[in-house]
Write a structure and sequence with these properties.
It contains six helices and no strands. By secondary structure, the chain is mainly alpha-helical. It has a single domain, classed as lambda repressor-like DNA-binding domains (434 Repressor (Amino-terminal Domain), Orthogonal Bundle), CATH 1.10.260.40. Helix 2 crosses helix 3. Keywords: Coiled coil. This is Transcriptional regulator, XRE family.
């Protein structure tokens, strides 16, 4: 359990760091970005630090502001192997006819 908590903490810190980098790339202050999210600057600062108390809705809203909303759509999607994905896309598989049915 301790190891899982460390993994979660590490992931949240990386997400916070990426959020900070994206905000800085847009040349926006914490106060401005927090306002766009409907948060106080202090709450937003905790988000950038990877606080586990940050609501998932705030992360999704930040993704929307940054044009990354599509990244959230498949987060808990069912895993599908490539063959199943291909068959689903192309419909039923078609096989070649037998030699008996072909003229020589």
């Amino acid at each position: 359990m301790f190891n899982k908590n460390m993994e979660i903490e590490s992931l949240l810190k990386r997400l916070g760091q990426r959020l900070k980098e994206a905000r800085l790339a847009r040349n926006e202050s914490q106060a401005l970005f927090a306002e766009r999210l409907g948060l106080t600057r202090q709450s937003y600062s905790r988000m950038e630090k990877g606080s586990p108390q940050t609501l998932i809705g705030n992360w999704i809203a930040a993704g929307s502001i940054l044009g990354r909303l599509d990244d959230w759509k498949d987060i808990f999607a069912e895993n599908e192997d490539l063959f199943a994905k291909y068959e689903k896309k192309s419909g039923k598989r078609q096989r070649a006819g037998t030699r008996r049915n072909q003229r020589k």
